[in-house]
Amino acid sequence: MSQWSQVQQLEIKFLEQVDQFYDDNFPMEIRHLLAQWIESQDWEAAANNEAMAMILLQNLIIQVDDQLDRVSQEKNLLLIHNLKRVRKLLQGKYHGNPMHIAVIISNCLREERRILAAASMPVQGPLEKSLQNSVVSERQRNVEHKVSAIKNSAQMTDQDVKYLEDLQEEFDFRYKTIQSLEQNDKNSALIKQEMLALQAMLNTLDYKRKEVLSKIGRVIHEIDMLMSNMLTEELLDWKRRQQIACIGGPLHGGLDQLQNCFTLLAESLFQVRRQLEKLDELLTRLTYDGDPIPVQRPQLLEKVNFLLYNLFRNSFVVERQPCMPTHPQRPMVLKTLIQFTVKLRLLIKLPELNYQIRVKATIDKNVSTVSNRRFVLCGTHVKAMNMDESANGSLSVEFRHLQPKEMKTSAGSKGNEGPHMVTEELHSISFETQVCLYGLTINLETSSLPVVMISNVSQLPNAWASIIWYNLSTNDPQNLSFFNNPPAATLSQLLEVLSWQFSSYVGRGLNSEQLNMLAEKLTGQQVSYNDYQLSWAKFCKEHLPGKSFTFWIWLEAILDLIKKHILPLWIDGYVMGFVSKEKERILLKDKTPGTFLLRFSESNLGGITFTWVDQLENGDVTFHSVEPYNKGRLAALPFADILRDYKVIMADNVPENPLKYLYPDIPKDKAFGKHYSCQPNEVSKPSDGGGKGYVPSVFIPVSKILNDSTEPHSPSDLLPMSPSVYAVLREHLSPTAIETAVS
To answer: Taking every annotated instance into account, which residue ranges of this chain make up the domain SH2 (predicted)?
Structure first.
């Protein structure tokens, strides 16, 4: 079943998450129509290879053309229209930057895998639960309801101001009419009656002015209360959700809803501001003793301007944190002289601001708070915000060509640029701009979450560990001295984040048994998840007992192994992986001989091994574990083929494959058959195969087990032996002779 078919079978809450990351940059229609073709391409490799990306883009357009021909014959007008639009988008937007579409599709496929993994996990962790509680959802609905009510109140006040203006114009006309009469006419009874009517009208005007000012004051108060409480909390919650998403957690939605709220509030405040300007205009034409306008209007206008300043300042956010396109799953880790991207958004979307706001990017603006190392940003660091580049029309700007460069020290040489750059130093990318609108000038500033600067990709694992620990442990967006005294983390939350590393990077998270093993490895004992506090040093700095590497480096090597060599097997759930030697023997001891399981090596970085159970002639159970396979050996022979072709030579026995059933009782070929690079080789005579007289050869992994050992002795795991040669050996040599030749 294709990945897209699995996605379509998800529950609605997960489908809503999928819907969030498909937009005009990569329309869902194309994902649906070209599902199998898209999944069969290596978009991740193309994201780092422009030539490959250009070929894939051209092939994608060809695929769209084929679909367009098909739907044209079916006369599906709507689909024809959408496909033509998509084709125009692909040719126009990505022709000059084909790697960008590769990055987008790669990210979409990865997020699908993460959501599929999350859907398969039976229990939510504490962090994910905290992000999805009903109180937050209820507050979101309340904010939207209150913003709508405020907008309606401001519009109704507009009608009151219009009525007041009409009433004053009528009063002004009648008053000037009386003033134009001769003195004798003014003493008539009719005129005196008219003067009484004018006095009553003036009283009404005074009442309406007070009423309008009171309504404006209530609207301002409602906006103030909403901004001070619920809207601020909503924005902080979104920023926290963004932090969690950056380290592999659930996607953070809600920014479009926040934009809608911010925009409506800004429109309401500008509307109130115009109402106050209209009252000032009415004041210049008519005033009187006790007039409320000159007393109340300045205070109300000052409050409106204050709220607008705060609203604009809070609306300037980093929509997408700094990230190198070459490492999309490792945001906030930046390598010197390598481009990174970052996206800013102004949540107040007003047409008047399109292309009017220029944003400047800087690094370590407050240098006194950072390390001794100094950086500058190379590339285009000033750009205008606009509504044209974003698929949803938001007012945003994306910097795509920024590069951090370390400045030379006063001695004329670079600071710590080199292999020993400290991965616990935090830096900050800052952004500033100025908004000039309707007579207001507002300076805006915001910053990215702390980033780690590296000079070599070998520093990436430890740098990413720093990013994980920071964003797991604190809500503070700018604590650059965090690692001077890093706090401990709750084990339950850390384990949840570790599971996210697997779900986001390799498409399948960890179950409770796998997490238990990691917990014991971290703590050296069985502990309560909820109570145990783990130190930063234990996680990333102290070596594991008896090992030359830390827990995190061990785990990162396993992630790399899965990603590059056993990804399909991991996604299918056939790699138990995290199980101790003691636990694996408990699991296997009562199983049918030939039952095996796959686990990651605890002593070799990035190694995977398999252990099977066997039964001796006296009925005793014995276990065999093969020497771990690392990425070098797996690059020569796919792991599924190793499991298929693996042979063991025991004394006086012919070589045979001891692996029969994947734990608990799945026939080996049923589990791994679809992952074999080809069907099992039929044994053939030497004369049957090979071009130009050569015998075709394959690698057959072979181990020899001595009588007094339960472990394969230094297995020759990649012994080159062709099927035909193996057949000849079987026909003409004894098992003892074969064993001697192998050894």
So the answer is: 570-672
